[in-house]
Amino acid sequence: MLIGRLRSDDIYLQLNSYPLPQHRTTALAAQASVLVVILCFAPSVLHNETATMREICDKFFHDNWVVPIYMGYRLNLLDFWNGYKAAKMALEVCKSVKATKMDALVSKVGEVLKEGVLTEDNVLERANKVIEVLRECNVTLRWVFLHTAPLNSGMSLYFSGN
Fold first, then answer.
1. Is the pTM of this model over 0.70?
2. Which helix (H) or strand (E) holds 76?
3. Average pLDDT, the chain
């Protein structure tokens, strides 16, 4: 029942803060962390339910496979779900690379931060564009921080992937 609720609802009501479809995994990141932990208690879903795992991966992990689970502890789902047939297959389909967006974002931020552009009137007129750039920066930086930081080596002591 918990897995079904986490799969279908936005329990933390974050989708309003990240309305664009490409930011959905960021909006649902906290919920995805809870889902990963709960799935540890349902290995039959991870092993056998290919359609369920494909839906979960498409919704929560299509561009984020490193998941923060608690205060600085992260799981790399590519490694963690390696022993689970349905989970591994679903996640393999979802791999993508987001780091190439950094150059484009740097130029967008440069346009927004030009001298004299961030006046009160200009920001109010272009609020949607500024907020869009900020969201994109937040999403991309979050991805870079999670996917490039070294993972905690002790996580295997707490969670067994098999």
1. no
2. strand 73-76
3. 82
